[in-house]
Amino acid sequence: MPTTCVVGILWGDEGKGKVIDYLAADADFVVRYGGGHNAGHTLVLPSGKLVLHLVPSGVVHAHTTNVIGNGVVVDPIHLVAEVARLRERGLAVALGRNLLLSERAHVILEAHRQQDHWHEHLRGSGKIGTTGRGIGPAYSDRCSRIGLRLGDLLRPQRLRAGLQGLVQQKNAWFGPAGLQPLDAEAMFRDLSAAGDALRAGITDTGAVLRRALAAGKRILLEGAQGCLLDLEHGTYPYVTSSHASTGGAFSGTGLPPHGMRVVGIAKAYATRVGEGPFPTELDDELGNRLRTAGNEFGATTGRPRRCGWFDSVAVRYSGALSGAGELVVTNLDVLRGFPLRIATGYRLPDGRRTGEFPAFDLEAVAPDYVELPAFTEDLREVRRFDALPPNAQRYVQALEQHTGLPVRTVSVGPERHQVILR
Ligand code: IMP
Fold first, then answer.
1. Is 64 in contact with 24 (CB distance < 8 Å)?
2. Nearest ligand 1 atom to alpha carbon 131
3. Which of 2.30.30.30, 3.40.630.30, 3.90.170.10, 3.30.365.10 would CATH assign to domain 266-421?
4. Distance from C-alpha of 305 to C-alpha of 334, rounded to nearest angstrom
């Protein structure tokens, strides 16, 4: 199949950057379809660690064309800075050549960042724990049909008219809410300057991708966040505001819904950043040890990630809804010396057992676990599945058994080569 979609199976941070980097070696196009610079995709290259927020992870491969699809929300000021940072790292990022930006992608404004913080403040103890990047408010404006698109930045008259409407709507409540009122003229200047800087890359990426598909080019879709943060299917309201699962891959790129290979990425344990239910969370010393062993701190915000046991109920749900045909299991090496447990089902508050992932009351379920023998060996230099310690092999086989998904790839360290293919 010419199109592959890499999708995070739980709440993001599964190590998609490394897998995309690996798969991008065989791709012509690498395409982001949703989210914004709330994402942080970490690559460990021979030259050192590289964290990408908005630019697709294929940018480190000279032969790929990288596309920011229409489903992404773009902070143009951030994007200009990210491109400059990548160039400083010696990467040849050329707008219009190896980096294309959808003219339909919506723009994140400084006002959206203000709104994001304000909404979180108002929610008080019920806060989402957003990344504070303005993601939700930018998508809200898109739905409210007052958003600006990247293509507007190149059209002064449309930009002025769009800003006038948007500023009028926002200033009606920004001042009274204690937010900084917006200055349409200053915004026009800043956005026009950002548009000029990005002009060479802004195009009809949907048309480019459909032509590429027709020509048999290999397209790699880079999911951001994870299925359980999907606006529709995730742990609402503790979700992001985009369609992070594969459903967003079509609407967020303009590609037609033809068959695609879906690769689900899951850590060998579970993590979550921000608030919201997490049935297998280890809210104790073991969880702290896992956080330290896995260096589980957000690539975007530096926040400590909550850690817990592998949850096959959640993985089965996300795998099914995303159409994943296989799992890549990352960070297996991190579990060295840890007890090994896998959640196989949930007990509901009324005592009933279920293997389904519920839409409500997830905070009240109690997981049932199976326990497996631990492994104590260092896995980082192992390159063949049958060379893994028997207990590590058994753990992976148990993940397959309980999720119903074949594990074809196991990652045993952050570096490119630290991977086992089966
Ligand atoms: P937002 O996307 O900034 O609105 O945040 C909404 C929720 O998604 C919060 O719980 C964030 O911590 C979470 N989130 C957003 N982006 C990522 C990511 O790339 N990795 C993990 N969690 C994320």
1. yes
2. 3
3. 3.90.170.10
4. 15
Cβ(8) – ligand 1 distance below 6 Å: no
Nearest CA to ligand 1 atom 9: 130
pLDDT of residue 44: 85
Cβ of 12 less than 6 Å from ligand 1: yes
Residues with catalytic annotation? 13, 41
Please say whether the structural domain 3-105+200-262 has been given the CATH code 3.40.440.10: yes
Closest approach atom of ligand 1 to CA 136: 4
User: DSSP E strands: which ranges in 321-393?
Assistant: 326-330, 340-347, 353-354, 366-372
Q: How far is CA 251 from the centre of its chain?
A: 16
Q: Where are the domain boundaries for CATH 1.10.300.10 in the chain?
A: 112-198
Q: Which CATH superfamily is domain 112-198 in?
A: Adenylosuccinate Synthetase, subunit A, domain 2 (1.10.300.10)
pLDDT digit string, tens, across residues 154-179: 999 999 999 999 999 999 999 999 99
- What is the number of the ligand 1 atom nearest to the C-alpha of 224? 19
- Minimum CA distance residue for ligand 1 atom 1: 130
pTM beyond 0.85, yes or no: yes
Ligand 1 pocket check for 136: Cβ under 6 Å: yes
| Whether residue 299 has its Cβ less than 6 Å from ligand 1 | no
**DSSP assigned state of 214:** H
pLDDT at residue 72 tops 80? yes
Q: Is the CB of 311 under 6 A from ligand 1?
A: no
Q: What's the mean pLDDT in 353-372?
A: 96
> What's the confidence (pLDDT) of residue 2?
83
Q: Could you list the beta-strand ranges (E) of 284-352.
A: 306-308, 310-311, 326-330, 340-347
Q: Could you tell me if 140 and 241 are in contact, meaning their C-beta atoms sit under 8 angstroms apart? A: yes
| Calpha distance 249→32 (Å, rounded) | 8
Q: Which of 112, 240, 271, 272 to mutate to test the pocket of ligand 1 (most atoms within 8 A of CB)?
A: 240
Residue at 215: amino acid letter = A
Question: For residues 209 and 62, what is the distance between their CA atoms, to the nearest angstrom?
Answer: 18
CA of 131 to the centre of ligand 1 (A): 6
Sorting pLDDT into bands at 50, 70 and 90, what band is 54?
very high
Pick the residue whose CA is nearest to atom 5 on ligand 1: 130
Asked if pLDDT for residue 47 goes beyond 90, the answer is no
| Residue range(s) occupied by CATH 3.90.170.10 in the chain | 266-421
Query: Residues 367-381: what's their mean pLDDT?
Result: 97
